[in-house]
Write a structure and sequence with these properties.
The chain is 30% helix and 22% strand. The chain contains four helices and seven strands; from the N terminus they run H-E-E-E-H-E-H-E-E-E-H.
Length: 153
Amino acid sequence: MKLAAILTLVLCSGVAFAAAPKPALSVKTLDGGTFDLAGQQDKWVIVNFWATWCSPCLKELPDISAFVAAHKDKVAAIGMDFEDADKVDIEKFLKTHPLSFPVSMVDVDNPPKDFGAPKGLPNTYVIAPDGHLAKTFLGPIQTKDLQDVTGIR
């Protein structure tokens, strides 16, 4: 009985967990488009929270970008810039660090509900083609990590 009461309290409190089992995400991208997780059916999706000042983020971004570019038919990604910065500064950063996937600026005070604020950066979620959360990474990842989760070589 106590467990049920606690679960009810947690579920009704609006507390966001690391990511919902089948998370929803629809965000505006820097290029003026919209990235909608629901529109990525039948693809693996990488949701990567990062910041321009984060050196481990800068180290992993090329691997993620290359993996997405090499497997466009099977993999999509969204870069979630998690910092209090101006759009112009992020666009300038992306000119020197180009990515093969769209980027969205996250409101640090109002992060996406089904993901919440990252526990640290970088923070990466890999969503399976059926929409469920397949794996969460806290810290930098490499191509091998993405290959192991997705089974794509």
